[in-house]
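My main concern about presentation is that the manuscript never shows what a single data entry looks like. In essence, backbone conformation is discretised, so a fold becomes a row of integers matching the chain in length. An entry of this sort, consisting of the sequence and the corresponding backbone structure tokens, reads as follows:
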Amino acid sequence: MTSSQPRVIVKSDPARLTIEWLDGHKTVYAIAQLRAVCPCARCVSETTGQRVHDPRSVPADLTHQGVRLVGNYAVSIVFADGHDTGIYSYAFLRDNDPGS
């Protein structure tokens, strides 16, 4: 097991997602931050890898309407703005830790 494996995922606050990692590290993500870095094909060009979604367009008070596990490697988030196509792998989430 690596440090990019979660021990606990807390999704009870609609404005935040908290992950406690197996190595003891804890990360708190604002939902708006996660929407801004969404890795899906609607937000990042599949051919160029460039972001096509403007992160500045995400309201700071954005919330989620649901978070679900995707296999043993990721979470999917339904954002209050209707966006729901991003799959956030645990490695991606750990690499995008706002506290790092």
